[in-house]
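Q&A FORM
Asked by: J.P.
Topic: structure of NlpE N-terminal domain-containing protein

PROVIDED:
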Amino acid sequence: MKLLHTTLLLIFNLTIFAQSNAFAGDYNRTFSKEGDHLIEYKLTLHQDGTFVFHSYSKIKNGVPPEVNKYGKGKWTAKDNVITFSSNKQEDFDAKYKLHFNNSKARFVTKNPRDKSDRIIKTKLTFVDSEIQWIQRLDVFKI
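REPLIED BY: S.T.
REPLY: Here is the structure written out as tokens.
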């Protein structure tokens, strides 16, 4: 009986770990118009449940012309929704200022049962956030 419980517990833990592997990785999105502006978003979801976010913008005639914004914290996944959180004591300092609490993103990928030729890029779509400019942002998995 103990062997059965141990085996089931091991399988359950492996299943949870395998699901987080699908979400973990680097995500990126770039908007640019040659010579005028460049906006880049980079998000890295680590397998240990932490994340780092970097936003870079270089706008011609902008004030200031270049802006870097950083955020970090923890992420959790339930179904295809990733929830982000930031701890004020651990995740905020002079560099990391973005507040990701209550931010949620939907993980979008091609369904394994879909046998069609259509291409669906794996991405995260931010559906809710206290950071106004991040809502509805799509970042694609690299």
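FOLLOW-UP: The mean pLDDT is 86.
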